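Please complete every field before forwarding. Incomplete forms are returned to the sender.

SECTION A: IDENTIFIERS
Entry label: holo-503
Bound molecule: zinc ion
Molecule representation: SMILES string

SECTION B: INPUTS
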Amino acid sequence: MTETTELINQLDELERSLYVFHHLSSQVELDAMTAAPIDSAAGRSVVTEYLSKERYAAFASEKTGKLLSDLVERKAELPEKTARQAEVLKRDYDRMKAVPQEEYVQYDILVSEAQNVWLKAKLNNDYASFSPYLKKIVESQLRFIEYWDPDHKQKPYDVLLNEYEYGLTADMLDKFFDEVKQTVVPLVHAITEKGWQPDTEFLNKYAPLEKQRELSDYLMDVLTLDRAHCSIAETEHPFTLEFNKDDVRISTHYHTDSVMSSFYSVMHEGGHALYELHTGDELRFTSLASGASSGIHESISRFFENIIGRSKGFCDFILPKMNELFPGQFESVTEKAFYQAVNTARPSLIRTEADELTYCLHIMLRYEMEKALINREISVDDLPRIWNEKMKEYLGVDVPNDTKGVLQDMHWGGGMFGYFPTYALGNAYGAQMCERMKRDVDVERCCAEGDLKPVVSWLTDHVFRYGCLLDPIPLFNQYCGAEFTAKPYCRYLKEKYSEIYGL
Ligand SMILES: [Zn+2]
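SECTION C: PREDICTED COMPLEX
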């Protein structure tokens, strides 16, 4: 056996063990979110801590470091896939190795405690009890930035962005959000001034659970999700969890007084699931076998949820099915009224309930705040005040309390600084991708006929099958044939909402 072959064998072995850790921790997470009784966290956290330590020991070892360096050195001799595996793993290795093990474990414990404190603080509108934890998390993040970029080659916040969207910078985001702000803020204000809103009352009539479950099954079929490889559960918060490309789990939450809530959750999580189910076969059980980045992933889920699921064609297509499943509820509703109702844009307090138009403003505010926090321009104690000011400025709404304001999301308490922007980027990536897709696929016909096969097949060829073979920005440039700009997204929102609201 040549030395290179031997190294490749060792790499396969490493990938296997990483897959096992991924599978086991996903299993624990899935159980926590689905079947486990409410007060059962203590036992699971013992397992999580053990797995976290063992994974660290296996991955951040001298042996792994040497293996990855040797492979990266021989990059030219390696098959393309292997070279990329080594590159991606080396990047993770360097990041993980840079943080001393004891600090890594302590941070895990801090974050898991902070999650519990955050949840109680949110329930009791008690920001003061959460802020000491948030301060410690921010301090940890600032230390991590030093570890990860000791020579200060990047701006501090960019170092965090790179964890979720490799290659993304605050400069790119500033430009993006500037353009979004200029388009969306006036649109939102114009809608508010106009004072007219579509009738949405019929959407909140009683919709029986068993019929909503039937609707989910139907939507999963329309999305072409293979049920032999993708199951659906019911949880408090909808999610997608992938074990591997043959085993993807999604979940939804049913509200009997809001049938479209689960409808769009299934479309959204279904989009995430399609991506995972269609990564290249040859990538199976490797670190390349998943979506390219948070932003690209979100672009796919938002594409199915909004660009497809809220399009005129798809609304017309789905209305007869809604009539069939929920007799009486949609009987006197016209196609136009249904389309307008599911596309209502109304400034609101809660990000996860925000509509397609105002959603990005919720993200913009979080982006501006977390960037300022990491740049030490503001402090944790300033967050509630700044939050409320920005909500007023961008969305025109008054925040009544921190529960409905700064405490609403779990991300910061989970140490996920740099993650929020990927949500907004996802929306914008999707709009530009759709413009490109329309050159090859009659997307409007697909929506109107509920035939999404050509769409999924385009996405498989251009996006899904690559997994992590390319970094998000080069991948995006490749399938769009152009660099990312906010323009298609702004154009899409402006055209759609001007038409709906007669602006
Ligand atoms: Zn998502």
